[in-house]
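Design review, sub-item: ligand-bound model
Attendees: FS, YL, KQ
YL presented the inputs for the pyridoxal-5'-phosphate complex:
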Amino acid sequence: MKKSIELDWANLGFNYIKTDYRYISYWGKGEWDGGTLTEDNTVHISEGSTALHYGQTVFEGMKAYRAKDGSINLFRPEENAKRMQRSCRRLLMPVILTDVFVEAIKKVVKANEEYIPPYGTGGSLYIRPYMIGIGDNIGVKPAEGYLFSIFCMPVGAYFKEGLVPTNFLVSEYDRAAGNGTGAAKVGGNYGGSLLPGSLARERNFSDAIYLDPITHTKIEEVGAANFFGITKDNQFITPLSPSILPSITKYSLLYLAEKRLGLEAREEDVFVNQLDRFTEAGACGTAAVITPIGGIQYKDDFHTFYSETETGPIIKKLYNELTGIQYGDVIAPEGWIIKV
Ligand SMILES: *Cc1c(COP(=O)(O)O)cnc(C)c1O
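KQ shared the predicted structure:
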């Protein structure tokens, strides 16, 4: 019999919660083993693991949603599979095939089904796939062994009081190098972001905004989320750069802005000294969903968009369209929702 979980669904944050099962698979001698579910939430690895010393580690982030009819939705999991493959290739790690990845995600979600927040609470099951280089190594070279795992936990609605804008601070630090690993979801990009993020929060901003590392004139990322803006003449604009992490939420919004809201939508340079072209701005990603940006502090200037306290009409529409699709209330574009 399945035990039923009683969590305080309304007050979930974004915190680690140990759920019952995680998927784990090992690579050795040139192939993956079959992969299994385990109840053990610890991993036992060699002190020489490349993940520990040289950052040979990649991850993904995605969610499962409980629909009104009780079924479980995954949002574009094949895109996460493909992005993880690109991240792995960048760090000379073996890849997980898309079908294997999606099946493993389904297994983990199914096994922890009682942890999925009920429909209507605004919560979801956050899913964290990751891969690390393991084994007895010391030289700077790719590992011969790898561990691939997927765990999950219930997380709350990002906005408990509804969509509330927050402010951000343009950092003097870079998050990625021009031709570095910015476009890959690799551990090394995030260690370096802890200090700028903390400096921004010390000054009461939600997070740091990063400019392009080559010219420091263009917006690239908002913390660990992508930036977008809505222009006065109804264009959806999001930065184009090889050092931005290609957000699946961002590409989904580009599509929805054009096909469902009738906006012109495209990627192009977003100069930090030309923010007055935007009437609304937001940050987007799996965790952030859409965070309306109230204002941006850049050096001595504070630029406000729609309002510091209210969300603009286009962002509201985009938010409703996106979350409606994820929870199954709005018809999804072909292939976007995969049932568990
Ligand atoms: C994961 C991530 C995002 C958001 O990507 P999604 O696929 O939308 O979740 C954006 N920026 C950075 C730096 C990230 O790590």
